[in-house]
Amino acid sequence: MPFESYTYKSRGEIEAKAKSLGLYLPFTDNTGILHTPHAGFENRLVFQPMEGCDGSTEGDIGDLSVRRYLRYAEGGVGLIWFEAVAITPEARANPRQPWLNEKTFDSFARLVDQIKKVGMAKNGFAPKIILQATHSGRYSKPEGVPAPIIAYNNPLFEKDNPIDPSRIITDGELRRLEDCFYQTAKLSEAAGFDGIDVKCCHRYLNSELMSAYNRPGEYGGSLENRSRLLRNGVAAANAATGKDFIKTTRLNLYDAFPYPFGFGTDLVEGSTKRDPSELFVVMEALHDLGVRLVNMSMGNPYVNPHVNRPYNLGGYTPAEHPLEGVARMIQGVSELSHRFPDMDFVASGLSYLRQYAIPAAAALVENGDAAFVGFGRGSFAYPDFPRELKEGTFDEKKVCIACSKCTELMRAGSVTGCVIRDSETYLPLYREFCMKK
Predict the structure, then answer these.
(1) What is the residue range of 413's domain?
(2) Residue 279's domain is classified under what CATH number?
(3) C or N terminus of the chain, fewer CB within 10 Å?
(4) Burial class (CB in 10 A: 0-12, 13-18, 19+), 216
(5) Rounded to an integer, what distance in angstroms lies between the CA atom of residue 125 and that of residue 76?
(6) Are residues 347 and 413 in the same domain?
(7) Is residue 68 a part of any domain in this protein?
């Protein structure tokens, strides 16, 4: 079905469109289920790791970061999945990406303490906080200019401008990163975080390795090799922290690129057909490592952003209807939830549905398709929605409209947030960085 802009005036219109497209897109009126506790979390709502690009050049937490996370804490969400934090200085995606180390430790610890206190004072509970540990790989830009560190050369991305093969990370350097995950996990537990995410999504380094079918050595070729950094990163976090500290990952279930350049596809040359066979094997390995919570995503926000966050407005017009993207994510997470009943999965990608994302999220929990539902763009736009939904004051006029302006700000090199709903802070920046260009 060709792309269509969002014009829906009711939930019924969305349901009718989904039915006409043959899509599984459930809804329920039982939205109260989103506020039921589960597995030590106060509710089923997650604020996803949205990068604000607003830390210091040294890696400390910045003032806008504090503002954002305290708004999250007041908003009543059960789990704050903290934004991507670099495990080494060269791993940073921008000069203001947080980097947890002994020198920046105090700024992290102070913020975690503030989040817990504000959440308790406002809502009667402290949200859980999971730190996302990342290596940006081919998207590394620690000094503001591209400084890619790649798993392999990818002609789909590099086209007529291939990255110098000297930028391919060696097996020895990858082994060193396993110790970096150990150190980051140890520091994050000491800072008061409740868990660590060994990030493996959106084609950053760990995620790119998952599709390194033609890479030689210990980190390429077989699935065991391609998932080695992920598994060893989790094992390192296990060794560095206590048993009650959550070890998890945000993981791409499907890259949506043709084999051999995409994970989660049918292993046939040029195929983009989604095939979860390898994903299931990886999930079994994570289960054996004690992982019981996994945050699922897909696609590459730099190349095919409509895959992981279906939008109304963006940099290009996708070749599919946005509801197809929403349903694809739901289907992928549902498969995992029903195949691995003793693991909890976080669904995402629902913000396109605007206010109707709430009854859709509730349906996923009610039907056992997901244990938790994450909101990324939605958290930028409406950080108070979990509390206001519970209080019965949810305001449809505050929801994310999937306009992609937050992404535009990030790509333009600015700090980022919701230009529409938080306009006093971010509209002037949008005018400066985006409209003038």
Answers:
(1) 404-437
(2) 3.20.20.70
(3) C
(4) exposed
(5) 8
(6) no
(7) yes
Residue 35 shares a structural domain with residue 143: yes
Asked if 75 and 54 sit in the same domain, the reply is yes
- pTM given for the model: 0.98
In the predicted structure, residue 436 carries a pLDDT above the cut 80: no
For the segment 47-74, the average pLDDT, to the nearest whole number, is 98
First vs last C-alpha separation in the chain = 33
- Mean pLDDT, rounded, for 186-195: 98
For residues 300 and 413, membership in a common domain is answered with no
Check the CA dihedral 376-377-378-380 and report its sign.
positive
Q: Across the strands, what pairs with 168?
A: 150
The answer to whether 132 and 51 have CB atoms below 8 angstroms apart is no
Which pLDDT tens digit goes with each residue over 21-44? 999 999 999 999 999 999 999 999
Over residues 73-91, the pLDDT tens digits come to 999 999 999 999 999 999 9
Which residues, 6 or more positions from 328, have their beta carbon under 8 angstroms from its beta carbon?
254, 274, 298, 307
**Residue 437: what pLDDT?**
62
